[in-house]
Amino acid sequence: METPQERIRNFCIIAHIDHGKSTLADRLLEYTHTVSERNMKEQTLDTMDIERERGITIKSVSVRMLYKADDGLEYVLHLIDTPGHVDFAYEVSRSLAACEGALLLVDAAQGVEAQTLANAYKAVDQNLEIVPVINKIDLPAADIESARRQIEDLVGLDAKDAVLASAKSGLGTRDVLEAVIKMVPPPRGDYNAPLRALIYDAVYNTYRGVIVYLRVVDGTLCKGQRIVMMSSGSKYEVAEVGVFVPEARATDSLGAGEVGYMICSIKTLDDTKIGDTVTDAQRSAAEALPGYEEVKPVVFCGMYPAATNDYTELREALEKLQLNDASFTFQADSSDALGLGFRLGFLGLLHMEIVQERLEREFDLTLVMTMPNVAYQVTRTDGTVMEIQKASQMPSGAEIEICEEPYIEADIMCPTEYLSAVIELCKKKRGQHVRLDYIDGRRCMAVYQMPLSEIVIDFYDKLKTCTRGYGSLDYRLIGFRPGDLVKLEILLNNESVDALSCIVHREHAVIMGRALASKLRKLIPRQQYEVIIQAAVGRKIIVRETIKAVRKNVLAKCYGGDITRKRKLLEKQKAGKKRMKQVGTVEVPQEAFMALLRVNEDQ
């Protein structure tokens, strides 16, 4: 029996990091008896080990709940729990497309933060009904009136009827559910129209193939039905459809407005495109649903298997993981130092860490990563424009007309007392001041434009340090701008190591070169011969460090006797070491590549 659309509500929870999204989802599951008390645990919907360990949501998760409202009717609620970190904003935008409403969660003690604003604007762009919820009202530092004012002034929502809740204690959970039923509109699909369903996510299962997560917009999706993917034209027979409660449970069909999954024995990963429209093979829809914007990676790095013969396993693992996380890209690559591997593109540094950790855990791989960098645009003297994703692709200085780097606009929120520290940090990172807004007597928002390369590695950590944890950051790309950029090459015994080279601003080249060289001097083990580490820009050596040779005591057998005999032995040793240096290659340990990610340019 299909649920009437007027009794269905599709909504998601959006908020800044740590404002209580997953905890509120737990309370809703508990209150609606979707999960029994025996099976309840903290962050029930965060199923990956890595999510539970880090205490963050990485993947959006859907769950179906049944709730008997004050009007006596039973409603079907589809909740999608979304991540809060800026690197997973793509997950949020996909989830919003499957909903009609969103709960905007604001911490009563911390107020509106940078990601709160960013996610609220995304929801407004999708024409979603936003329900403001002020969470953590039982904290001693809670200031409900200030949170209300911030929601009204910054987000532009009427917050006088905002739901007051405490996700930790369960206070206000019923009010949240009632607000969803009253304020979030029901879906407006047509049961009798040809089937149209939007794919918003997918996971790969070793035994069942691809499990497709979708939202049915029009028509009905049934078991045994022949369907077609509108972008590729691939046809399949539906083997199973179902809903998440929160574990997968098979049903006979999914009607218009419902959110669930389907399994069609899809073996190849290429046939499932996130944002594609599923329709009936016999009675096809005239036009596809609007999908998603193509995701654009902003941070790139090389990934190589530690054991060369694991290359095929790494490729298969990346293909499987890409279906589960469509927001990273990869292509084959090779390095003189590290052999065959892949060049990967990510949405940020946390995203890179998570992908690496998932590959190592879920597929039992040992990986070596190179220094992360951003994509640059180079206009050559002959007028051709090329995109550069790694330092080795950069042409020589004589061939470059203009070198451009990506810029972002950053919204930084912090207490007013830390503003001077934030301004100092942004100046150091080549930031250009845009404006400063005072939110209330205690907090302000500084808007800066700065190169993406400056914030990729350690900007967020330094922001948290200089604001004692109270600063929050959101950023968006605003295009490319010319910069005085150079290739910083690392040479070991006069041989360039492409995996350690990077592109930096000319004024930072010496500082970065010194930091890299001194780090390598500590990490590369001493050899039988002297190792010279150099950092160079073009043909000019700007930094040099030396690792002294391990010296065997060849005079140990000499006791007394003629000094010329000792000199002869030392000269012989010296000549041997010189010959070794000519034929020897320097072994760079894996830890060196990883440690370079944490190079401190303030050293």
Question: If you had to describe this structure to a student in words, what would you say it looks like?
Answer:
The protein is of the alpha+beta class. The protein folds into five domains: 5-183, P-loop containing nucleotide triphosphate hydrolases (Rossmann fold); 196-280, Translation factors (Elongation Factor Tu (Ef-tu), domain 3, Beta Barrel); 299-369, Alpha-Beta Plaits, CATH 3.30.70.870; 376-482, Alpha-Beta Plaits, CATH 3.30.70; 486-598, Elongation factor 4, C-terminal domain (Alpha-Beta Plaits), CATH 3.30.70. Helix content is 25%, strand content 32%. It has 14 helices and 31 strands. The strands form six sheets. An eight-stranded antiparallel sheet has the order 11-10-16-7-8-15-12-13, covered by helices on one side. It has a six-stranded mixed sheet with strand order 2-3-1-4-5-6, with helices on both faces. Strands 21, 22, 23, 24, 25 and 26 form a six-stranded antiparallel sheet that branches. β30 (531-537) and β31 (540-547) form a beta hairpin. The longest helix has 21 residues, at 563-583. It is globular.
